[in-house]
Amino acid sequence: MGTSAEKHARQKQGRSTRLTEAKRRAAQSSRRRRVVSVIAALAGIAIIVGGIAIFRSSDDGSSDSSTTTTTAGDDSTTTTLGADAAELARPPEGITLDAETPCPPAEGTAKRVEKFAGPPPTCIDPNATYTATFSTTKGDFTAALNSAKAPVSVNNFVVLSRYHYYDGVPFHRIVPGFVIQAGDGDGDPWGNNDLGYSIQDELPASSAEYADFTLAMANSGPNTNGSQFFVVLPGGGAQLQPSYSLFGQVVEGQAVVEEIGKLGNAQQEPTEAVVINSVTITETKG
Length: 286
Description:
Radius of gyration: 34 Å
Number of helices: 3
Largest sheet: 8 strands, antiparallel, barrel
CATH topology of the largest domain: Cyclophilin
Order of helices and strands: HEEEEHEEEEEHE
Strand content: 15-25%
Shape: globular
CATH class of the largest domain: Mainly Beta
Helix content: 25-40%
Number of strands: 10
Distance between the termini: 134 Å
CATH superfamily of the largest domain: Cyclophilin-like
Strand order of the largest sheet: 3-4-9-7-8-6-5-10
């Protein structure tokens, strides 16, 4: 059986062995808990990163070829992420003027003109006032044209309207809280039409002049104005630099403009096709 001392030694050795084994099992358990925690943490990070990626993917809009630029974000309360863009029909075919542009008759030409050989002569009366009534598929609105402040822009707009240039042309760019833009007469592609000429800038003194519902010329740089124009939506003027010729103010049908202004997605594309049926110019001798 052995001596008492040997018995005590064997008991001590057994306790030591059991303690060592308990410590080993505790260490293994601790390592397993740490591994599980790390895996869980990594899984959580992956879920979060995946969520960010999905969100960015759905919110990542491509830039438009439009010619007005904003210095602030779009109104997220009125844009719809991922909304489908409407299909825009090409404007009706028009003829090309190969010779010097003559002044069109006040009642308008018989045929729509789509491209010109050069800028028009001065056709408006400096002593008259002009308004433009836009008949659209969402209703009508009327703008007073400021020929005293922007005679070149107003003359150009009146001439194009009387040549029926804007008939059948859609609002190809709608940015809720900013602007609605139209005037691309061939739609190939939208926002990059070739009018055949350009006119000079007539710029406001400051951005403060871009009041709600003002009309201005879109451009692709200094003195590159052609046929495209935009209407400033409520609050949109604060986002503009004074780089766009200001030539009018919507005085009737502002609610129609606001309704059109709601129909844009995050990519600045119309979600419903809104077409200008015609622009009627009224001349008042003063």
